[in-house]
Amino acid sequence: MSAGRLVYVAGPSGAGKDSVLAWVRAQLTPTDRVRFARRTVTRPAQPGGEAHDTVDAETFGRRLVAGDFVMHWRANGLAYGIGGEVLGWLQAGDTVVVNGSREYLPQALILFPALELVHVCATPAVLRAELAARGRENAAQIEKRLARAASFSPPPGVPT
Q1: What is the pTM of this model?
Q2: CA gap 113, 47 in Å, rounded
Q3: Which of 60, 72, 95, 134 keeps 20 to 30 A from 113, CA to CA?
Q4: Are residues 40 and 80 in contact, defined by beta-carbon separation less than 8 angstroms?
């Protein structure tokens, strides 16, 4: 299907995905053929958070209908999209790194059966502390996120 590699990074909020991705970026040289897909999210950018393209729900919907996203999902009341440019990068033989969703993983595997999963995880205590420090959610919402994190296991046969 594609000449490049798709590396799909997923894990619960607060586990450190952005830190892992920043570390990987810092290790690369200009000759490495690694591309990082930039997510489009219906959430404003926050200092110290993920660098993403921010759009409102209406704009996201228009872009979705226009076919701008090769992958898209909803989680925690937000919409997320990965642009179609990743297809060209894969066809060119590049390694493409996507900050994905655990819940979207089965659909991503249908689209990209050879994707490689990097599952970033942390203990419940670390997740709870990170989520609380962000201040985006109340205690009940944090506990719901922790329960979702505990229930995830990669599908059988997925390269990790």
Answers
A1: 0.84
A2: 35
A3: 60
A4: yes
